[in-house]
Amino acid sequence: MSFTVVEPATARLNRSELAVPASNYRFIEKAADSAADVVFLDLEDAVAPDDKAQARKNVVKALNEIDFGKRTLSLRINGLDTPYMYRDVVDVIEQGGERLDLIMIPKVGTYADVYALDMLVTQVEDAIGRDKRLGFELIIETALGMANVDEIAAASARNESLHFGVADYAASTKARTTNIGGPNPLYGVLTDAAVAGASRDFHWGDMWHYAIARMVVAARAAGIRPVDGPFGDIRDAEGYRAQANRAAVLGCEGKWAIHPSQIELANALFTPSEEEIARAEAILSAMQQAKREGKGAVTLDGRLIDIASIKQAEVLVDKARQIAEAG
Ligand code: GLV
Ligand code: MG
Fold first, then answer.
1. Residues 170 and 291 placed together within one structural domain of the fold
2. How many Å apart are CA 77 and CA 41, to the nearest integer?
3. Minimal-distance CA residue to ligand 1 atom 1
4. Looking at 271, 295, 311, which one is the last position of a domain?
5. Residues 179 and 279 in one domain
6. pLDDT at residue 315, as a whole number
7. Which of 5, 97, 98, 155 has the fewest Cβ atoms within 10 angstroms?
């Protein structure tokens, strides 16, 4: 292990993260009854400029009046380059009570963006004597943000997660996309003519692989959660599952739901299976037995178990416990 110890962020379930336009109060009420682990009330891109002020009022009213249960509640504020952001922060923290858990910062480009928000949030929290410190969710969705992703991930003790905002990322990098967060038929490889002869196959590739893998590394190195962003075709559950699975395989803890129908898909995909949990529990009990017997090496079913598998088993069992507690 390195001598540098990375402190993990506050542990939270983050399998599904539901986006809710704050301009629509009915949608906010419905979100409170949903099965989403995290709900983010959106003041940014889902809200037209003329509706920003009303959406902010809706958030304050919802925070004071709606029972959101145990789920994590977040607020997506407007970007730092807009005239709305300061008031999003000040009004909602001053008037919204203690219920809000997180602030989601869109289009983060540099370390300094997070630093600036940390300063503003700290001032408002201190001024009103807020008991609970707000955490930060950061959307990596620009070329600048991806270029600075390591520094951004480590920019504040408030940081809890990085999110891959694929729609804006495509716009920023001028990538050629079709469906938001989906594959592009042009991105793939043709098997080599010298080997495959006349029957060459075209294999579709994942054009978002680098971006997600890069974000996962930055997030994990900073002890925070990587979360995959939106999938645009809300009728295509199979497509959603495929994109969520590949994000989970790379290490993401969850995925956005831009429609309520995507919540259950995400919850199911990011919940460890019963076999995985049973295997993890078996690893931990084999380790405990080896300890009792004073053995250095741990084996299970004839195979040596290393420290990395024990750690993974602990994480998995802990996640299963959180899911059971969430009901
Ligand atoms: C999310 O904000 C995105 O741009 O994909
Ligand atoms: Mg975006």
1. no
2. 9
3. 165
4. 271
5. no
6. 87
7. 5
Mean pLDDT, the chain, integer: 95
Residues with CB under 5 A from ligand 2 (ion): 141, 165, 168
pLDDT digits (tens, 9 = 90+) for 262-302: 999 999 999 999 999 999 999 999 888 888 888 877 888 88
Does any ligand 1 atom lie closer than 6 A to the CB of residue 139? Answer: yes
Q: Which two tokens stand for residue 63?
A: 């925070």
Same domain as 282, residue 158: no
Q: For residue 45, report the distance from its CA to the centre of ligand 2, in Å.
A: 7
Expressed in percent and rounded to 5, the helix, strand and coil fractions of the chain are 45, 15, 40
Three-state DSSP class for residue 33: coil
Please choose from 169, 172, 179, 255 the residue to mutate so as to test ligand 1's pocket, defined by most ligand atoms within 8 A of CB.
Answer: 169
Average pLDDT over residues 188-209: 95
The amino acid that residue 250 corresponds to is L
* CB-ligand 1 contact for 166 (6 Å cutoff): yes
Pair 144, 37 in one domain: yes
Query: What's the gap in Å between 44 CA and the centre of ligand 2?
Result: 8
Which two three-digit tokens encode residue 35?
A: 């099965």
Q: Which amino acid is at 270?
A: F
Q: Measured between alpha carbons, how far is 59 from 62 in angstroms, rounded to an integer?
A: 5
**Residue 172: which domain range?**
16-271
- Would you state the structure tokens that stand for residue 97, as one six-digit string? 């009570």
Minimum CA distance residue for ligand 1 atom 3: 165
Given a cut of 80, whether residue 327 has pLDDT beyond it is no
Q: How many domains does the chain have?
A: 2
Same domain for 258 and 316?
no
Question: Are 305 and 226 part of one and the same domain?
Answer: no
Give residue-wise pLDDT tens across range 116-169.
Answer: 999 999 999 999 999 999 999 999 999 999 999 999 999 999 999 999 999 999
Are 60 and 115 part of one and the same domain?
yes
pTM of the model: 0.94
Q: What is the whole-number distance in angstroms between the Cα of residue 282 and the centre of ligand 1?
A: 40
